[in-house]
Specification:
The protein is mainly α. It is about 75% helix and about 0% strand. It has helices at about 10-45, 50-75, 80-95, 100-130, 135-165, 170-175, 175-190, 205-225, 230-250, 265-295, 300-310, 310-325, 330-350, 360-385, 390-430, 435-440, 445-455, 460-495, 505-510; strands spanning about 515-520, 525, 540. It has a three-stranded antiparallel sheet with strand order 2-1-3, with no helix packed on it. The chain is globular. The protein starts with 9 loop residues before the first helix and ends with a strand.
Length: about 550
Amino acid sequence: MTSTAAKAGRKEWIALTVLLLPLLLVSMDMGVLYFALPFISEDLEPTAPQQLWMMDIYGFLLAGLLITMGALGDRIGRRRLLLIGAAAFGTASVAAAFANSPEMLIATRALLGVAGATLMPSTLALIRNLFHDPAQRRTAIAIWTAALTAGATLGPVAGGLLLDHFWWGSAFLLNVPAMVLLLAVGPFLLPEFKDAAAGRLDLVGAGLSLVSVLAVIYGIKETAAEGVTPLYLASIVVGLVVGYLFVRRQRTVADPLIDLALFRNRAFSASIAVNVIAAVALMGSALFNTQYMQLVLGMRPLTAALWSLTVMPGITVALTVSGILAKKVRPGFLICGGLLLSVAGFVVMSQARPGTPLVVVLVGAGLVAAGVLIATTLTAEMVLTSAPPEQAGAAGATSETGSELGGALGIAVLGSVADAVYGRDMRDATFDGVPADAVHAANDTLAAASATAGRVSGGAGEHLLDTARDAFTHGMQYATLGGAVLLTLAALGATWLLREVPVPEQAEQADPTEQAERVEGTTIVKATEGATVVPTRVAEAVGSR
């Protein structure tokens, strides 16, 4: 008996479009504050620590609550959690736009992070409820992945355009119309799904998960920004210890947030690992690409953001080709190909020097992004289909948490390599006519060197800036080549671990029993071999693929 998945129709594709709205805005909100911060600082006059909390609290809480919110959606209903999150996100956006004190803005940014954590796993899990045909599901996930990346790219552009014409609060009000639209049409377009057999939410486990992720990401980010200190190392260690306690609890508690047995599935565990490494590559590439355009080539932030959009057509072509190949080629080999494409991008970026044409860096960054998106589209599908339908929210949230950790590691590890080379080159150079305190400041970062050079008159300032730019691209060369080595090892590992995972269409046809969970509203009905199966739009195949 062969398994034939129902094809999605127009309603499902419209529903996917609706799901992309919160996803775009959650990812945009991570970068939009960078443009608004100077205007906020002038208006609200925050202290330096308050500025840091304005920037970081959103991402910290978003990452720390993903697993909890994914598990919560599986219990109370993914659509219900999505709509609750949308209402909270819209409300917090209005409050942030009209914040009249630093404390109020920090609090509303925290609420935005909590609400954002409800949106991301719900959108990915609902894709599994909407699309049951493997090819259509893979296309939907590719669109979901591209939207997440596009939001991060469009955030600075949208923020820059709004702030050119309106006050800083307009950057937050951008969220409101999309959330209102989601609340209006979501109940009619999106299916509901919840696990009727799920137990109570493990609040102790949720607390352990939050503390672990927050402590690790905080330690990594601060180490990348300010260097290694006992405080930041202690934060990472505490996070790892609490993470160990979280894992131990999930093994013994009656109703765990995430079933650790999933990690015994090679497709699931390897996909999580690939997501972490892919995020390292993507964030490292974005870090160097942005700094190169702004600090080496001297572009304004908005101009650099607009130039970054020029790689999107090439990424679209790459994703389209990989989607066609995915119908015939095993995912392990395609993931390997995507990661090797990113390796090629890092090698191209390593050739950049102060006088190198911009196209070289853009091509390199485009190849890195295209390869990462090819790989993560396939891993997202394997994460969803490796987990039972009732655990799809928690499984997707685990994958997203890995990506958040990978992003922090990308900035910390690759950024530290580049900073070490930059600092060494600057200390070895001599700067006649430049005050010692100015040289000391310029030794830290290229941004500091650019600011310092502007205060040094004559050719000495130009020499300082030219040397700093050479040192930066030298450090960028080492870091991108290091990233290429890391991705090469990941590509080989993915090929080995995932070599037996079949093409999804072949897996569907090879399944001799139909063990489907069919969801109507919030009621789950199981159909097994020999039973009469009533066609339904939301049929969901169960088991590992």
